[in-house]
Amino acid sequence: MYEHLKQQPADKILALIQMYGEDPRDQKIDLGVGVYKNAEGVTPVMRAVKAAEQRIWETQDSKAYTGLAGDPAYSDAMIGLILGTVVPRGNIAAVATPGGTGACRQAFELIRMANPSARVFVSNPTWPNHLSILNYLGIETVLYRYFDSESRGVDFDGMMEDLKAAQAGDVVLLHGCCHNPTGANLNLVQWQEVINLINERGLIAMIDIAYQGFGDGLEEDTQGVRLVASSVKECLIAASCSKNFGVYRERTGLLMAITADAGQTAVLQGNLAFLNRQNYSFPPDHGARVVTTILTDDALRADWMNELEEIRLSMLGLRQQLADELQRLSGSDRFGFIAEHRGMFSRLGAAPELVEKLRADHGIYMVGDSRLNIAGLNAKTIPILANAIVEVGI
């Protein structure tokens, strides 16, 4: 049996991590892996997470299964965090998943079950796992223009033109905030235009929100998501707690399926539970229980929100420092987009050979498409990066 297996292509980010680890240079900078790091280069456990885990350790008296959909309290807490009250709870089916990746996988599985002929329209570029999972499941994908390499902003005219090729029943995959890998986001006027097109053409909206609280604020980052959820007939939302709660390894996610017909919710809930059963049975609970404990306790929630805001502001500060340093060194304002982007990532729009030159000549590691992790920087490394970017001619 094994002789028929073929070597799978290496994950580019994992390969980058290995190359970085093997690089003997002292002055090297890792801007590839998508995790938040503080000024000391550490991905910390948040204060509220520590406190919640302590409380759980002291009070939890069983490790029995919680149910195929996970703990309902977790779903309720996350729905409240992301959607507020814009959609009646009775119109939302939800299941806990192993991280945001698990939520995306289950969403794609549901799409294939519900409409095997549906195509999924995906931004160009997007998070690589979107395309990897879709291709693995045999779901037809269509790329729509998104990033303008000249302005380093959203190519909205191109996006809308490409989405007009979608037919009734096709799915439009959108990033809820802090677009990965570009950092360039839709504004609310553009969100509304996308919604109008979705409704006019009978399309299905799917939103992946993995960075809530990392962009313009915890509530602000949900504005587009809430506008979509309250304006379309059907919507899928895949959410991750990895970044904003810092529980990466706990694999904590949620998939929501929203319908305008509350009579469909029970069938949706049953199908989501069925998919959980087929893929991993009962979802992991520890991270979900930590998140629930934080969101349902006023003091823990307030502390979590404060620390999350500190993280958000620190990344905005790094963005501004890098943009300012590049302007000083280059004498040009062409890097102003870095301060305007939101979230952990920005895409420089540099050719792969220049990205490779940054690695080879300066020990600066970023993904080949020139996506850099802003959170991998600090006050000491910003001048080094800026000097290298100018020196290689980006």
Describe this structure in words.
This protein has 394 residues and is of the alpha/beta class. It has 2 domains: 10-45 and 301-392, Alpha-Beta Complex (Aspartate Aminotransferase, domain 1); 65-296, 3-Layer(aba) Sandwich (Aspartate Aminotransferase, domain 2). The protein has helices at 12-22, 47-59, 72-83, 99-114, 128-137, 156-163, 188-201, 223-229, 265-279, 286-295, 298-330, 337-340, 352-362, 381-392, and strands at 29-30, 92-98, 120-124, 141-145, 171-175, 204-209, 234-240, 252-259, 345-347, 364-365, 371-373. The strands form 3 sheets. It has a 7-stranded mixed beta sheet, sandwiched between helices. A two-stranded parallel ribbon has the order 1-10. Helix 8 (223-229) links the parallel strand 6 (204-209) and strand 7 (234-240). Helix 3 (72-83) crosses helix 10. The termini are far apart.
The CATH superfamily of the largest domain is Type I PLP-dependent aspartate aminotransferase-like (Major domain)
- The N- to C-terminal Cα distance equals 49 Å
Count the beta strands: 11
Strand order of the largest sheet: 2-8-7-6-5-3-4
Question: What order do the SSEs take from the amino end to the carboxyl end, as H and E?
Answer: HEHHEHEHEHEHEHEEHHHHEHEEH
Radius of gyration over C-alpha positions, nearest whole angstrom: 21 Å
Main sheet makeup: 7 strands, mixed
Question: Which range best describes the helical content: under 10%, 10-25%, 25-40%, 40-55%, 55-70% or over 70%?
Answer: 40-55%
In the CATH hierarchy, the architecture of the largest domain is 3-Layer(aba) Sandwich
CATH class of the largest domain: Alpha Beta
Structural class: alpha/beta
CATH topology of the largest domain: Aspartate Aminotransferase, domain 2
Query: Average pLDDT value?
Result: 96
Count of domains: 2
Number of helical elements? 14
Strand content bin: 5-15%
* Low-pLDDT segments, ≥5 res: none
- The coarse silhouette is globular
